[in-house]
């Protein structure tokens, strides 16, 4: 029943905006985007299919799918010439949603500049790109060490991206950093989505495992250039 299916999807869009923690606890989320390097305001497919929330290219081309407007942040590949291109700034409540792709080893940085926000999603490097010492560790150490090397190697790249995104050398006011390397080792995947509610953009993380899922609203950390990042 395509009409009923589409109505169910519209109802899910509204429920996600009004009760995000409940919806994300009860429905697996999957976002897949076309390749790219820059965040854009875009129309994107949204579907409720078999209890799953599917956004972007993963949404089926059938009667369950509707189109929503969202800020869309693709993953920047390790070899992209635009990996460290300055992040765009957006009015965070210009759209109802802010979506990016599922994380299975990436680092996601969200920046609040005070009135405007940016998001950057960095794919980790392949093993061949690490130095000899780290490659030896990666070859012989447990998977948790592999994940930690990925996390630590991406933090300076996150800093480089933030530096490139400053205007007049002014720091962001606060940030959210999600690094999914350990989650990937533990057979987990992370989905981060921004949802506009009560006049502000809030970000939520859904963590899926074989045993179920957990959902949390991500908290902001004040920017302190002399302190290590707080990392989810």
Automatic annotation (TrEMBL):
This is Uncharacterized protein.
